[in-house]
UniProtKB/TrEMBL annotation:
Keyword Ligase appears in the UniProt entry: yes
Organism this protein belongs to: Demequina sediminis
Swiss-Prot/TrEMBL keywords: ATP-binding, Ligase, Nucleotide-binding
Coiled-coil features, chain-numbered ranges: none
Superkingdom of the organism of origin: Bacteria
Name assigned to this protein: D-aspartate ligase
Domain ATP-grasp: 131-330
InterPro entries xrefs: ATP-grasp (IPR011761), CPAse_ATP-bd (IPR005479)
GO terms for MF: ligase activity
Amino acid sequence: MKQVLVVGLGGDIGTYAFQRAAHERFGWRSLVVSPRVTTFGRYSRLATWVIEPEVFTPEVLLARLDAIAADHPDHELLLFTNLDWHVRVLAQHRDHLDPRWLLPFPDLATFDAVSSKVAFAAACERVGVRTPFTVAVGFGGNDAGVAKGDALALVREAALEYPLIGKPSNSADWFTARFPGKQKIHHFTSEAELVEVLDHLEEIGYPSEFLVQEFVPGDETHMRSLTAYRDRAGQVTLVGGGQVLLEEHTPGTLGIPAAILTQVDQEAFDAAARLLDHLDYFGFANFDYKVSSRTGERVFFEANPRIGRNNFYVTAAGVNVAEVAARDLLPGHVDGDAPPRTPPREVLYSVVPYRMLLRYLLDPGLRARVAAAKRAHGVFHPLRYRGDGSLMRRLYVRALDARLVRKYLEHYPHPTESGF
């Protein structure tokens, strides 16, 4: 049987989590192609790092992948990333890659239908999935958004109350945009703040839509994460999720879950599977949705055409994400019965120290559930892995914990009703 080489692009914590899952389940080692050894890979023994300063130049990336394939002529090649830009480039140039490369990602047309939040909302409407009221603002490019003045008028006519949420329709375009005060997700407390960002986007000629959305009531514990996989045969073989307990709060990472309590939300799981079937989707997808504190309805915000930064919560809850991909793409390497479609265990996933997490949990019932999950299974942190547990690695991860605590004390010292 051929050996398997897992190649990760970028080296974020989600890529590390997938590498960990592959190592835990199969003993596979990895290569990571990145401009530098990232925070999450430092002192790790799971992967060999290939330093490529121009990994975000398509021609250089493709040439580097060709070289890796040529250096491993007898290997199965599983390519993995957790960055929209890479997913799109790989979809655009799939025909130019060595056919041995296995990619658990959608094709270009499906990528565009999902990564554009405007197209995503339209697809959701067709299958009866609720999305927030949204105004798509355009800036004179090839987008379909309304002009800035018209957008402000629509917001006023809809009588939307502030705060409002601002986010890009296309994550790949947002990745390359540069302007003062840019955040992953903007939280506008007034029309003046909204106008300031729209002016910046107009000045730089932003090429796609910027979305202004209603704020669905409830703090960040009303947010949910959902991870799914739809295989080459058109079967949704994974759908799992959890309740967000705490999000990150630095400007560049605002809104990314930092702690999740896994749970089964069958209504949301069915909605996600219905959408994936409608799109004839292939590969991993990660959804963000929120349960309104006012109505209890589930409101879907987006689907990312990749596994998501926090995918380790799925592995921790009982379904190894690398096995899910391998059963589809590398079936000869997998034995035994298939794992359940939905992870069965309620576990606590957190990159935040437990005591710090409790500081932000105001609901006594939720605190009790979190404490029970910790007593039953402990706390699951993707970077704490015995199979990658050298002394330097353990000390370094502990230092990352301390740094994260300092960031919370600086940017979000006390919990708020809105999560901002």
